[in-house]
Amino acid sequence: MSDHVRYPSFSFHEAHPDRMAGMAKLLGLNPPDVATSRVLGLGCASGGHLLPMAQRLPNARFVGLDVVAEEIEIGRAYALALNLTNIELLVADLADLVAWQGPFDYIIAHGLYSWLPAPLQPVLLKGIRNALSPHGVAFISWNTQPGWSRRAPVHELIKGFVDADALPQERVRQGRAFAKVLAANTPRDDSTYSRMVHDELDHLQEAHDGFFLGDVAVSHMEPLRYDQFNQRVRAENLQILCDAGGLNPTITGPTHPQVRAAIDQFGDDLIKVECFLDAITGRAFRTTLLVRDDAPAAAGVTGQAMEQLRFSTDLAPPAEFVPGQPAVLASPWGGQAKIDMPILQVLLHAISEQYPARLGLIEVVEGVAELMGSPPNQAMLQQLTMALRMCLGSDLVQAHTRNLPTRPSPSHSPTACPVVRLLASSDALRVPTDTHRALPIDDVDRAVLPLLDGARSIADLVDQTHLNEGDVNQRLQRYWEAGLFIA
After folding, report:
1. Nearest 5°: CA angle at 16, between 14 and 17?
2. How far apart are CA 234 and CA 222, in angstroms?
3. How many other C-beta atoms are found inside a 10 Å radius of the C-beta of residue 206?
4. Which end of the chain is more exposed for a tag (fewer CB within 10 A), N or C?
5. Tens digit of each residue's pLDDT (9 = 90 or more) over 41-93
6. Residue 7, CB half-sphere, CA atoms under 13 Å: how many?
């Protein structure tokens, strides 16, 4: 029996090429067409991130690399079962740059850099630079200081009670055993130390073994300040484009005057701005977009760039929403944002009403005009353009280069996307939605989703799952709202 500890592999919407291309185009670059692009996934595990994209983008090409043969074999079996011919999964070490088979238009290195041994970190960045096409974009995630420092003391405590030479499963077992001892014997009170320890232990208790191993039971993990990461990127002839989850606030303008005043002290030094924002937010993890050092410098967001894109948000106002009064907008994925600026409220309301559709700028203006009960005009367009920039900076709104297919209407014989049915029948913890979100599933979902092949009626599902009709319909409604069905 293998001692390999599986690392959860699922879709991550920030690392979708359409999202990456949207950010690049927003900043004045000309990224490759996503529909026909070449995409490389590094440390892809069993392909949970790449496989849904390969199915939904049949004219794009995907290559995934991972050092763990067991994960690659699982991913290959998935690809074969789905009849996907536009994806190749390879067992390869990062140092084997020949296996990268560049150039690639989009490169994804998620959950990888901070955990690499020091000699391999520049190898990863150098490989990205060599494999990236001239107008390509790379996604990389990394652990960030000073926020990671809040978590590190507990991790170091646990590492002291883990045999670094033991096999992975045994390291996880030892780490979890000591974490329980630590939790049981550390008083829960209002002291700073107690809150720090128990907050992290509570987090680790719920973590999958793969995450636990990566965060706690590994010998090497290096968080960095933003300026340190930037220096390393520059050393390998790459440059930071922007944060994958939103634009730099010096480009879009934050909404809080106090933060704006503090940022203004740094002038045009975007590196200091980002370090400052990490310091005041305690951010511990970053997702960053990179481009080659010979790519054009990112420009400010212009109206012309925004006219070429489409926009979406899943932040919806409450049922009792009254424009002009502070309101908490909520996402079905758990995010929340308190919005008190009327123009932002109406803008988000207009875009979220059409979710998951991605609206062009004119469609956004028309939707706002309808909600406001007044015809669109140039002054409204200018005001909304500024408001949209603010939303893009805070990741309240996302930019895209392409629209989504229209979701099918609820059916009496529903059909879930093939990759959803396949992953639900395996040991997957989550399944991909049409927006490339990862929907958590439970044992009931694993019983229902594989049956949604379009050949079964509601009555058939009731009979085969032993659920009552109300429970089946409730599950189907959740799947439809999440975007798991195809026409």
Report:
1. 125
2. 18
3. 8
4. N
5. 999 999 999 999 999 999 999 999 999 999 999 999 999 999 999 999 999 98
6. 21
